[in-house]
Design brief:
Jelly Rolls; 1 helix
Length: 404
């Protein structure tokens, strides 16, 4: 057996040590929470941050230049650790922005920071009983964190017939909280319950005090189980307002491209029946909702033989649990009698890549990257009036105005 000289072995070991040393990585700073989690445009608010590996934090920065921060100083003139005075310009856009801290170890991960157009407060005293319920004025957002194995109580004065909406932002602002929101009477008896993170749309049957109860679905809590509770008055009979949130992506998806953030037109009800179909001119970009349950939105347009139009519906891809379906028909009228001829039926967007046949990714990904949304071509076969009907195949029993 050939022997390896000792000095050769030692040299190899010493050469390996510098290579191993190069693998050492400094810990990355992580911003975990800000309290409060947002503020009103045109206001200033003191924000306390928490995180990991936040050594020698020097600045709190935001993704929008209309939001700025400077360290809070104590009586001795020195900066107070992890506290900043955040100033939000009056023209700062309402929505969710990114907050990061700059430290000796670099810039941190991002955390959601919201800007609203209503007054905001931060809960500072425990409110875990009917007797200690925190009073919440209308058109106010309360920033708070959930206590483990507890329920937070809020009280407001309701007037008979005055419609209000309660919205608890949690998962949409990067919180670990799965909120359960309950509307109750002054004694704490439940009136309405929402366990799916949606909105409670409530019209008081009489003047008096009403309670809002908030808890985690499994009664978890802690500083990372934060939430923003909004109580707003709703004018008219339109959809209740919902707080902005980060985009939810639960699987591989193809986000809609080329669609404006805000459509230039909105659907006008009633448009469910043929006689109420809205007359439109192509091309068209319109926003609407699958509301109420079993809603069908109908539009009529003139087209000529040989025309080719593309129809796209974005709903599931913007985070709604829907399955849109489009039916295009040619309409021939003879007095009061209509003759309908199907032109196109548009269903799901087919996956643009081949899905694995065995589930092990040997011949493609083991998941479907298509979408229940609609994207398809409509070829016009004869001149005349055409009707496009849009519905949610899952919407027969769902009554959610947020299903846009």
């Amino acid at each position: 057996m050939r022997r390896v000289p000792f000095f050769a072995f030692l040299s190899g070991f010493l050469l390996a040590v510098p290579a191993m040393a190069q693998l050492v990585v400094l810990p990355a700073p992580r911003l975990l929470t800000t309290l409060p989690m947002g503020g009103k445009a045109g206001s200033s608010v003191e924000v306390t941050i928490t995180g990991e590996n936040l050594e020698e934090v020097t600045a709190l920065q935001f993704s929008n230049t209309k939001i700025s921060a400077k360290p809070v100083t104590g009586p001795d003139g020195k900066p107070v650790e992890n506290q900043f005075l955040v100033t939000i310009a009056p023209d700062a856009p309402v929505g969710v922005h990114e907050a990061r801290v700059l430290s000796r170890l670099g810039i941190s991960s991002a955390r959601a920071f919201s800007v609203s157009n209503v007054d905001e407060v931060t809960r500072t005293v425990a409110n875990n009983s009917v007797e200690t319920a925190m009073k919440l004025p209308l058109n106010t957002i309360c920033n708070a964190t959930m206590t483990k194995r507890a329920v937070d109580f809020y009280a407001f004065e309701g007037k008979k017939g005055q419609r209000v909406a309660v919205d608890c932002a949690a998962t949409g602002i990067d919180s670990r909280l799965t909120p359960v929101v309950i509307m109750a009477n002054a004694k704490g008896a439940d009136l309405l319950v929402n366990r799916t993170g949606g909105i409670i749309d409530f019209t008081p049957p009489a003047d008096g005090t009403y309670l809002i109860k908030v808890n985690d679905l499994t009664y978890q809590g802690g500083e990372r189980h934060f939430y923003r509770l909004a109580l707003r008055e709703v004018k008219g009979d339109g959809p209740a307002p919902q707080q902005p949130s980060t985009s939810r992506v639960s699987a591989v998806s193809w986000p809609p491209q080329g669609l404006a953030a805000n459509a230039p037109a909105n659907e006008v009800e009633p448009n469910d029946k043929a006689r109420d179909a809205k007359k439109v001119t192509l091309p068209l970009d319109v926003a609407g909702s699958f509301f109420p349950a079993a809603d069908v939105d109908s539009y009529e347009f003139e087209a000529k033989k040989g025309d080719v139009w593309w129809v796209e519906v974005a709903s599931e891809r913007i985070g709604r649990p829907t399955d849109p379906f489009v039916l295009v028909q040619h309409v021939a009228k003879n007095g009061e009698v209509e003759t309908l001829t199907d032109v196109a039926e548009l269903y799901d967007i087919v996956s643009p890549v081949k899905v694995s046949s065995n589930g092990y990714s040997y011949d493609g990904p083991p998941y479907d990257v298509g979408s229940p949304d609609v994207l398809g071509k409509v070829e016009i076969k004869q001149d005349g009036l055409h009707r496009l009907s849009l519905r949610d195949l899952f919407g027969g029993t769902r009554n959610d105005p947020q299903n846009a």
